Amino acid sequence: MTRNQPGLIPRFLRWGTITLVGLMPFHALIYVWLGTNLGHIDWFKIWPELAIAALTPLAVMSFVRDDKLRGVLMSRKINWLILWYVALHLAIAAWRQPELKALIAGLMTNLRIVAMLLLGQIMAHQWPDRKTAETFARVVIFTGLATVVFAVLQVTILPDDFLRWFGYGSTTIRPYTKLHEGSNVLRFSSTLRGPNPFGAYLVVILSSLLNRSYRSKQRTVVLFTVALAATALLFSFSRSAWIASVIACGLAYWVHALPNARRRVGLIAAAGVVLLATGVVIFRDNNVIENAFFHTDESNVASTSDEGHLAALRAGVQGVAEDPLGDGPGTAGPASVNLTKMSPRISENYYLQLAQEVGVIGLVLFLLIFALVMQRAYAQRLYVWPQVLLVSGIGLAVANMLLHVWADDTLGIIWWAMAGYYLYLPSKAQPK
User: Fold this and answer.
1) Segment 89-109, tens digit of pLDDT
2) Eight-class DSSP state of 3
3) Residue 426: how many CA atoms within 13 Å on its side-chain side?
């Protein structure tokens, strides 16, 4: 096997990885539809992890058989950190011995992102050509646009419960959610599993579309798609995604702008933040402001969404302070809903989730991995996709302080696979 003529295993790895990324925006729709019609919905729910498990032996075979690939991967600090990160998960799991179902869910949730980072690196080594890079990019963009168009249709034309025809409902995924109890404002999530994951996913799509608007000759068409994506983001009512998208889009403009324009934009942005904060405070009792920013209004006597966030954060901080070594994978975050001997621990903060599961050491290892990814993205920021990963990564890093963003299977698999591939792709193969 030569680099110019990849064999069967590299081909399976390439198309398997790209196909997985292309299907992930429709993951929730796929597993609900198939699960409600064929049964065994729990197995359909984990098909992405099963796909990663099927690709892993192929990756190991490539690693063992390809001396050059092995040398490249082992020369990178980030991959040694990944090995330590995985080993720490297994060690704490053996020590703490969490409930089996929660443990399996926790390991899948935490380790699939580093698995995709490794698969992306292998694909970049085996397929360092522009054709593959552009195919990967088209898959990400066009599947993202499909979810955007469907979300806009949900808001404008389709019946609110349209997805019930595909098995959506109270026992699977609700076709829509209300902003809060007693509200008539609906939140839509397109084909993803919820409004917040959909909003976070749109940060990547908006970043990529906005990046293309600076480079494309068909700028009007691209800006129209940006407007559609922004509309879908607005009706997700995900405040963390709003913040992340503003940060990502602002950084995208900052990268492209001339020095004089950067200073002007900085002043305008600062003034905008002050005006927005002032307006929210002044019109705090306005129904629109209460619904959009605080997810509550005067008719809602239940605790506000903000109070719930703060209570969850306090509980998370207290949990880490009491046990800084962690209680084991699956004992916090979305995976903890599988616990039967204790209540789920949802801190609504991905960093606290990791610290609760694999301790402060595990959190530090993850932050080092992410920092190296961001460092490489910054070094290659003049290329299209590294720039998209840089600005969206910074925005999502902030969103992770308010949500379990990387715990979402769709966004976690797509973003980290892209990071592994585009950040380690030779410059000559980077898409124009």
Assistant:
1) 999 999 999 999 999 999 999
2) S
3) 11
